[in-house]
């Protein structure tokens, strides 16, 4: 692979694999609808400082991630593509960073291409590229900070070093504005042991302040602005999102210390068989400064998150770029030596996974069908699985010639799967499409009501109306709904009939309900019976007409 074609080919693959599938399926609840609505709210209100979720204060994250999603909606429209563009762009830029640092580390075109290809084809990375949340953005900023750190440490000229340290500060500042203080901590976890090992304390003390100054300069204007607008923001954000989440006894998503180890293996699909030889090779060559840096980048964040009380799979996404670099390094070395055994084993492993998944799908479909007269969706899934099988069949039997085949199988499967999900899943998990089908009637309603925050945010986003009343649901808005000016959006069961009476005096009322159990059925029974009713899965849309004078 020549330098001339490696990068254009990667960028073309990013565009095809990440951008094309983005409009093929609705927004998933609760994450995608939440971020779509918050960023849309910024566009509609002009308030770019304090995040609000359906007009209710929402202090769980800073503002920059919402800015990027809002920018996507401003450029491409308030649609599926616009909402997801920031995630695709961030992931594509992380692929570019992988290529650039690989070129800096080894200066081998094929190795640089291999590292970037492996990274972009990790199934979790390909999946996140089309998912509208803050993790792809935060992962990019962390990746940029650590790539900049290596360029800073590896540069010779003073000007290059200053520029790299400045980029490091910019990345830390933007990462902080996206998800908080972790953006400052993660580079430190890598930099400190590395400079201790390399005995380069003086360089850190001389140039490190440049990064600190730039990070503060990037972060401080918004930090001061949000404090001026919402004085309670920092108390909630620091305590709830950092101390409680990572160290508190009541930390969210509590899990054992080894939680991330099997996840790291799963996240390396479709290159799992490369893990043992790649990590072994890295350990044997750990005294090489570049390899040592990558090992620290991989393991230090992983150890930190493993020791924290609260755990979520997305936390270790910043660990995948150094993992791809180590895997790509080992793969390219074996290609150079014409050692295809490990690649053949990798292809066979993926082949078995694909065949077992296909047979399981056929068995389930014959015994208890999950696809009900949905031939189009089923065909898409079959195409994705057959593509996966054929790609890995090629690697299994021609490992040296078809070493890249699993990447294409992974990208094809990740692109087709969301569009091929059964209607039962689509109906329950992507309500915005159902709401869109009845947008005209809902848009004529003077008031909107929902008993589920995911459905409510989908309703709010599709209608471009931030204010939705919450019927017997609080969830993550508990803190924001405690403010006096937000209490009017909360409707308790003993209040709903009076609220409905008052609302119907002004006009028709649009209601989106999720009915999953007895409690939701009782909620539904409290609403007026007249009007139009539409059902899809566990979703119910009611158009309740204006009351007679």
Q: What is the compact description of this entry?
A:
The chain has helices at about 5-20, 30-45, 65-75, 80-105, 110-120, 125-130, 135-155, 160-180, 180-200, 200-230, 235-245, 260-265, 275-285, 290-305, 320-335, 340-365, 375-395, 405-415, 425-430, 430-435, 440-445, 455-465, 495-505, 520-525; strands at about 50-55, 55, 445-450, 470, 490, 510-515, 530-535, 540-545.
Give a written overview of the molecule.
This protein has a six-stranded mixed beta sheet, with helices on both faces. It has a two-stranded antiparallel ribbon with strand order 1-2. It is mainly α and 549 residues long. It starts with a helix and ends in a 5-residue tail after the last strand. The protein has helices spanning 3-19, 31-45, 64-76, 80-106, 109-121, 123-129, 135-154, 158-179, 182-198, 201-229, 233-247, 260-267, 275-284, 289-307, 320-336, 341-367, 375-397, 405-416, 423-429, 431-437, 439-443, 453-463, 496-506, 518-525; strands at residues 52-53, 56-57, 447-450, 469-471, 490-491, 509-514, 532-536, 539-544. Helices cover 66% and strands 5% of the residues. The protein is globular. The mean pLDDT is 93. It has 24 helices and eight strands. The protein has three domains: 3-336, no CATH class; 341-422; 430-544.
């Amino acid at each position: 692979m020549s330098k001339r074609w490696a990068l254009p080919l990667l960028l073309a693959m990013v565009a095809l694999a990440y951008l094309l599938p983005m409009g093929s399926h609705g927004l998933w609840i609760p994450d995608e609808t939440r971020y779509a609505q918050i960023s849309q709210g910024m566009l509609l209100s002009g308030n770019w400082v304090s995040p609000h979720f359906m007009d209710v204060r929402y202090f769980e994250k800073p503002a920059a991630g919402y800015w990027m999603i809002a920018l996507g909606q401003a450029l491409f429209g308030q649609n599926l593509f616009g909402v997801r563009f920031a995630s695709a762009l961030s992931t594509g830029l992380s692929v570019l960073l992988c290529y650039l640092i690989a070129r800096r580390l080894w200066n081998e075109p094929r190795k640089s291409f291999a590292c970037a290809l492996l990274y972009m084809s990790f199934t979790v990375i390909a999946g996140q590229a089309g998912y509208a949340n803050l993790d792809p953005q935060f992962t990019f900023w962390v990746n940029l900070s650590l790539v900049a750190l290596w360029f800073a440490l590896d540069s010779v000229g003073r000007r290059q070093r200053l520029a790299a340290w400045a980029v490091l500060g910019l990345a830390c500042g933007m990462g902080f504005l996206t998800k908080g203080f972790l953006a400052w901590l993660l580079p430190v976890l890598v930099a400190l042991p590395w400079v201790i090992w390399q005995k380069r304390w003086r360089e850190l003390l001389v140039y490190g302040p440049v990064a600190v100054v730039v990070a503060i300069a990037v972060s401080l204007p918004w930090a001061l602005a949000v404090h001026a607008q919402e004085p309670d923001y920092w108390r909630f954000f620091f305590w709830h999102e950092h101390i409680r989440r990572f160290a508190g006894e009541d930390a969210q998503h509590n899990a054992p210390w080894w939680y991330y180890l099997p996840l790291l293996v799963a996240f390396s699909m479709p290159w799992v068989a490369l893990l043992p030889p790649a990590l072994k090779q890295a350990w044997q060559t750990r005294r090489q400064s570049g390899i040592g840096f990558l090992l620290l980048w991989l393991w230090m964040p992983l150890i930190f998150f493993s020791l924290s009380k609260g755990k979520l799979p997305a936390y270790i996404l910043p660990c995948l770029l150094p993992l791809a670099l180590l895997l790509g390094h080992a793969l390219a070395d074996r290609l150079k030596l014409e050692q295809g055994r490990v690649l053949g084993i990798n292809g066979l492993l993926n082949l078995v996974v694909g065949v077992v998944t296909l047979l399981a799908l056929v068995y389930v479909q014959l015994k208890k069908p999950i696809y009900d007269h949905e031939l189009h969706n089923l065909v898409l899934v079959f195409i994705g699985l057959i593509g996966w099988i054929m790609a890995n069949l090629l690697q299994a039997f021609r490992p040296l010639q078809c070493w890249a085949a699993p990447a294409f199988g992974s990208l094809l499967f990740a692109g087709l799967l969301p569009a091929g999900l059964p209607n039962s899943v689509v109906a329950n998990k992507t309500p915005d499409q159902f709401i869109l089908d009845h947008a005209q009637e809902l848009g004529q309603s003077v008031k909107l009501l929902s008993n589920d925050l995911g459905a409510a945010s989908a309703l709010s986003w599709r209608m471009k109306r931030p204010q939705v009343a919450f019927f017997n649901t609080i969830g993550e808005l508990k803190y924001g709904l405690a403010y006096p000016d937000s209490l009017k959006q909360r409707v308790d069961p003993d209040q709903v009939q009076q609220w409905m009476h008052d609302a119907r005096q002004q006009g028709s009322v649009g209601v989106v309900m999720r009915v999953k159990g007895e409690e939701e059925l009782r909620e539904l029974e409290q609403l007026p019976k007249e009007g139009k009713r539409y059902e899809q899965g566990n979703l119910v849309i009611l158009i309740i007409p204006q009351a007679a004078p």
